[in-house]
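Hi there, hope your week has been kind to you so far. It would help a lot if you went through both lines with me. No rush at all, and the record is pasted right below:

***
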Amino acid sequence: MLGYPYHYRDIRTDLIMNEAFNIISKEDLYMNSGIQIAQYNTIFQLLAEKNSKQNLLSIADKFLLMPDFFTFLLTGKKIAEYTIASTTGLIAPHNRNWNWKLIDLFGLSGNIFPEIVESGTFIANLSRNIAAKCALDENIPVYASAGHDTASAVVSVPAGNTSWAFLSSGTWSIIGVVTNKPIITTDAMNYNFSNEGGIQGTTRFLKNIIGLWALQECKRFWATGENDFSYEHLTELAFNYGNANAWIDLNDNRFLKPGDMPLKVLSFLKETNQAAVDNIGFIVRVILESLAFNYKTTIHQLEKVTNTKIDVLHAVGGGIQNELLNQITADAIGRRVVAGPVEGTLIGNCGVVAVASGAVNNLNEWKKIISQSFTLKEYAPVNESYFKDNEKYYRTILKC
């Protein structure tokens, strides 16, 4: 390892996008990659590294994304698994390989980019060194699972034959649909949708939304004082407060970074001439309702771009433990929400390897196993009118 990894929220990419757009326009970058434009994308991380005083790329053999780094530690093999590689902004989405045109345009050495493999590919057996240290059999096979956590999470969705969308609910909220090919259009670009790799040749057409990170940061800040509350208690305070009638734009840059998140929430409300109540239950409710409104908008955009009616939203991940959020999400989108399983990424990861190794015949069989193994909970709309009546005001505040 030549250096420690940077966190994607690091400040080194704060201004880097403007430099990138001097090399290629924002529109051309999207049309060549199909990936939403966000400052934490790997393409901007690499450009920031290239500009640094100690440019490690100039002496590197290969650059590895985090899931691929763990594969390297287990096997000694340097590969790039497609689902995680697809998020870099440096993939040609129609042929599922590196976009050598973009790589050359940004002055990056093609030699540092590893061979791309699909999810489920056998990589190698566990290295002898690790096997010996752990007293394990040397013949343990290591497969490339879906390295991107959302790609694995989608594998855990026990969806039936209805038209469905997925929501991976956690620090980030990732909401989208599975398609057979990328959708790279002007509408998709304007709505900032991403075409990320899925398993078995599919594409996850989705949007990244700052999710429960804002609530997590509020909890952390309150815990430094006298209010070290559990998430359950914070949710109870929000439930008891009732409708917030005030909302924030969670995609505003101020909410991306750590800090005094309650103050950031109240500041946004004041700046947009909304009620700003310095009350924990109110602030939590504002965050949850803002998320639900964002889901509502995204579902409508998905239906427009894909020309498909979505009947049900399947939610997986740790965020589904917040039952208030699940219910107001159903209210906001006006359709059923099916929540479960909680550990979606872990379970989907197991599924990819189970199918690849032959332990399970195919993906459909895996989804049947999931539906029979975990308790799913359904939420139907009960207060849809609240979000319908306030949608125009919400859109005015967010200018969307």
